[in-house]
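> tool_call: predict_assembly(chains=six)
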Amino acid sequence: MEYRALTVSIENKIAQVTLNRPDALNTMNLDFWKELPTAIREIDADARARVIILASTGRHFTAGMDLGVFMNPKNISLQGDPGRSAENLRRLVLQLQATFNVLESVRIPVLAAIQGGCIGGGVDMVSAADCRYCTEDAFFCIKETDLGMTADLGTLQRLPHLIPQGMMRELAYTGAKLSAQRAKEIGLVNEVYPDHDSMLNAVRKIAADISKRSPLAIAGCKEMINYSRDHSVQDSLNYMAAWQSGMFRPEDMMKTFAAKAQNTDPDFEELHPIRPPFSQE
Amino acid sequence: MEYRALTVSIENKIAQVTLNRPDALNTMNLDFWKELPTAIREIDADARARVIILASTGRHFTAGMDLGVFMNPKNISLQGDPGRSAENLRRLVLQLQATFNVLESVRIPVLAAIQGGCIGGGVDMVSAADCRYCTEDAFFCIKETDLGMTADLGTLQRLPHLIPQGMMRELAYTGAKLSAQRAKEIGLVNEVYPDHDSMLNAVRKIAADISKRSPLAIAGCKEMINYSRDHSVQDSLNYMAAWQSGMFRPEDMMKTFAAKAQNTDPDFEELHPIRPPFSQE
Amino acid sequence: MEYRALTVSIENKIAQVTLNRPDALNTMNLDFWKELPTAIREIDADARARVIILASTGRHFTAGMDLGVFMNPKNISLQGDPGRSAENLRRLVLQLQATFNVLESVRIPVLAAIQGGCIGGGVDMVSAADCRYCTEDAFFCIKETDLGMTADLGTLQRLPHLIPQGMMRELAYTGAKLSAQRAKEIGLVNEVYPDHDSMLNAVRKIAADISKRSPLAIAGCKEMINYSRDHSVQDSLNYMAAWQSGMFRPEDMMKTFAAKAQNTDPDFEELHPIRPPFSQE
Amino acid sequence: MEYRALTVSIENKIAQVTLNRPDALNTMNLDFWKELPTAIREIDADARARVIILASTGRHFTAGMDLGVFMNPKNISLQGDPGRSAENLRRLVLQLQATFNVLESVRIPVLAAIQGGCIGGGVDMVSAADCRYCTEDAFFCIKETDLGMTADLGTLQRLPHLIPQGMMRELAYTGAKLSAQRAKEIGLVNEVYPDHDSMLNAVRKIAADISKRSPLAIAGCKEMINYSRDHSVQDSLNYMAAWQSGMFRPEDMMKTFAAKAQNTDPDFEELHPIRPPFSQE
Amino acid sequence: MEYRALTVSIENKIAQVTLNRPDALNTMNLDFWKELPTAIREIDADARARVIILASTGRHFTAGMDLGVFMNPKNISLQGDPGRSAENLRRLVLQLQATFNVLESVRIPVLAAIQGGCIGGGVDMVSAADCRYCTEDAFFCIKETDLGMTADLGTLQRLPHLIPQGMMRELAYTGAKLSAQRAKEIGLVNEVYPDHDSMLNAVRKIAADISKRSPLAIAGCKEMINYSRDHSVQDSLNYMAAWQSGMFRPEDMMKTFAAKAQNTDPDFEELHPIRPPFSQE
Amino acid sequence: MEYRALTVSIENKIAQVTLNRPDALNTMNLDFWKELPTAIREIDADARARVIILASTGRHFTAGMDLGVFMNPKNISLQGDPGRSAENLRRLVLQLQATFNVLESVRIPVLAAIQGGCIGGGVDMVSAADCRYCTEDAFFCIKETDLGMTADLGTLQRLPHLIPQGMMRELAYTGAKLSAQRAKEIGLVNEVYPDHDSMLNAVRKIAADISKRSPLAIAGCKEMINYSRDHSVQDSLNYMAAWQSGMFRPEDMMKTFAAKAQNTDPDFEELHPIRPPFSQE
């Protein structure tokens, strides 16, 4: 697939998906909404990459929603019978949410590398990533409050699990900017870097670390951490045991022992590609 | 779309999806797995029908899975690294489950009209329908137990909500046939009819009743009954209130008053068709 | 308090709350909405009765909502800013739901004795009662579907726990009448009686049975059955044990032994009245 | 282990655990509380039986708790600091509940064959079995209400999942006897038989059916039906897929095909015995 | 209403509720328990304020429960039948919990401004506020442990969602004082200020920021953050979409664009006042 | 019981359980897996200690699993029918998880004092403790990722509740070492100490603080904090009220008042020992 709002590459088992409309502040336009889930899902399905870096270009990570999309009455209309419009609006919100859900549901980790402003829909998006890293000049802003609406694509659902409740609420109610330094202190980002280049280098190093590990073990970690957020510890332990009954086999562990003995990296098999069932006809 | 394992029609706002391979006992072959979710989703998306009848042909509703599908090593392989095969198998099960989940997630009711045997995958399928009706010679059988495996496409997840737990367990553990009469007594089917024709006529009459009612009101009922099964009453009441804040507007009610005054059927607007977001450009 | 839509009495530890507007088909008018929760709560708070019979007068139990209430724009208005109207509508639904929730949250059982039609809001109401009994000519109807709206006061949240899912859905989608006989077969009512008088006599006998038992034991039963519907068995067992640590003391059991030895009814202490905290100053 | 309150046998892969104190109405005395969970767990751990019949002797299945146990102040004391006694009482209830939980948590089905009275603790017990069968003269009674206390060992937690809510509540509030016939109508028992012998013969036949099927497939069914009762359908489907990734392998299915071709019963491998981890040293 | 334990004011859409018994260390006496929920609910119902500051007077925010309230046997009595006293005690705890629940359930944010000691019931109370701010000399103490009891009004239920689990447990088990500085580090308070005046000024500035934003958007944020804490992300996203179907209309957004163009603050409509249903007659 | 992998002592109501195989880096060998849950449970059952310190010896807290245990085919075998091996593997994982669950389920707090490396299974273990303290040279490592497997004994289920999600995921995906200082910043440990001795002294002081408080109050705190992690705030408040109805009695509070008046420590009664029900025969 050809991408217009994104640049997509895979190298050394590391995929990078980059927002590439810096002149438009990487706003989320129609192309973006179509391409992001496609790109992420294809990378996962191909099983050639073991980790995804979600990056951007220019001064700001993203200014969020391209409001022009919503101003176009073809895209969102509240005309006609109001009940049916509401039913339509509900589905539109669910569809847009699904765009970011894919970051969470793919089998491989997604690392967001954030420079400058991460605004509105940008916060919804990076809240669904596995880990966040940023530059010193980065800032986060729940812009929706400033625009007279309630953020509806994940910020209010996922961010409360990432930062302390009190800060979460102040940021949501005021639309205030959260600085990079404070974002690290409260646990939103794992690390802050001096500039865009040093951040990308550091994130690539973390990605390289991940890419050398068993993709099956990593996929298990991601599934379990996702699951644990939403279930009781007892349910999560039980799910772990069922999972492990299928996924744990000693082959990968043997490879790590052999590799250590030979001072090399273990050569793990990739996950199976994802195909529609019975697609081979 | 052209269908091979199904016949699909829409008439008077009633869609009918019919399994049409009676000579093969309407087993679920590759075509079936591809076509069923497509057909159901398209009917919902088009918003021309307000109810779906899921029917079949020949002596038996369905004999369930076409085992040839699974015997083909291209379709399911447990070769290679066993952990990765297990990960692949898990996803295959989720994908096949999704086929039947669509009966539950569409906005309009699905009425299953069952003649003769409803076996194995057939039980998984009709458990996901809204209502079940059958002929006197119908029977239900959790065949998977007989084949040395655990049913995995919904029977053990949905049927316990449809019939008493004790009967559920006996049927699952023994693979015994459940007769039409007993199926009605324990609540699995709403009504039993003498033969295939009388059943279809009766089900079409119920479908016609549904098709005259406000599709928005019906969609709300389906969403709420689905939701209530899986949530506490308090959560469900709260969800109802949020839903109603958008969906309840007095227009449809006014139409019923006007229609009653004029002794006609009210002429309700259809639900909006479902389209990918922003697809109109 | 003086009641206008209801008659309220307490005799021999049995309270009876009777809808008393038979000429208006006992529709739920403004008085009803104000008085029902007040009456039920006061009976519980006083702790003089150990069980409540919810009955009605005339040919029909209730025709449901008095639509005039909603036609009055003072009571429900969707004018002005639509978002704020929706917020207001949501709260109205929650407030009306709370009217029926009280039947569930009081400490003592509520037995509904239903003659003739139990329609629309009537189904929402009796679904929140502990037990339902009816006359041969009784019928139940989810009328809201017929009026172009989704029932929103509990029918779709509680009734699916009372009757088989398939019947639940057919009744909701079609607005069809459910007969007394079929209501018993599918578990909605415990018993059907020839006429209003024989029903009331029978229900009073059941109420008398309840009123002779320890009100603390009964309150525990009600709390636990409510709780079990909405929680896992493991959570419910755990809650039971915590409850019992406070509520189980052998005094009531000793009284039953003593009474049996003397061939009398045990003389149990009433529950404490419910008062606002610290209100006695 | 030697049993005093029970008789335990295993024959043809069918275990039978029989209450053997008919002269004492099979009340649950100290021996019973110690022996039942031990017996059930050992049968499961040994993996020699594929199903358990829980039966009794004499005129009545069981009269429930031997109250002498509780009258002994050594067994239950509410002396001393009341808070600490309450903490102790809570744990006692949890411990007694655990006795019956084991019927649910073992890997193989438990079929209860009930003659005459099944009273008090008997209802708690059979509610935790997989299936219930009874004689024509059987009856069920939530006796605790009659004794001035709230049943606390599972009746109020599991029975509401087995019978309609309205009947559940009437039985709990009144302590009324539920007849065999009505028990079948409302789904509590699967079948009613003329007398004790015919019941045992029939239940043994069902057990024999179960014992010929793959014990791994049956164990999966039991785990899934247990799980589905307490979780959403979506969670249950997801758990099923994880389970199947480990447990589904085509060997057992192949055996059913081969057996059918040769007109014999398939010869399935038993489940592994349960041992403490690393116990073999 | 006249308040005795509180001072209540509304200015510029900012309400302030101030504990005004500094000489009694602002302990929670009878007046407090009656007045706090009334005051908070009335402010919400009136819809004249868009945010509430919860403040105090004197050297300490509050010393928690006025123990004299509980020493008075009229207020809490464990005399008489112990089971019934326990039932009464349970309800008393629920009633007192409800006092603080109201801080969470009102539609508008509550900002707690804490000077000096915040002790015992004070921690229960501020844990239910949206955001916490404090002075340098502030400290927090789960005093109940020191008094030989388990905190029961929310501290153990809400504080674990506000601070790391390990700190939560140490504070609960030891009753140790948590300093202002450490409280900020672990996320309990958003900011620490040199003294009472500078804190109140800063909190008023934050409140002013909130008060300029759309009250409907803010109410949506509060509802969603509350909801997300207690539900899975998937349930929360789904609830968000239903909510938005009713609450999102572009009017408020248009006002923000217009205001920005004119360099003014947007003039949003207030939320509707909360009235009992049908109360206007 | 004699312990080989552990040293167990109780002094001044403080129990200490110490890993005592420093030459083997305190790896978790067969003895460890048998002894740890036994030791912890016995301390709780005896009710002579009010708090447990979990400590270790030598340079490193623990290097995690003794891999020799798993290399022994007697302990874990994936031979034979793969489905049955998977069922066996699932139970093994559940059994090993149960070893650490006991740290959470005992009534008294467990304080982990960690020096040097806390690796693999060590992280699973200390995640189940109530509080964690460490030395400056301590570090934490989710070693399983490095060994090609998914950690399955609690790390992925409990650690996400202890530290920010973003850090959790990076640590799990990379197997990176987490330093003591960063562990404190992100809330994993409560405090960092210069060396092993100063840590143990400080932890003993905290334990002494706990041991002077009412063991019933502390047990209530632990139960509630455990419960709140896995349930909604509303469910948790409700559970609190039921608990308190049994456990709250003013005796302990009176003792604190009396002790304060006399400037002594209150002399609280111990919790009742835990015995099998009816064990006194």
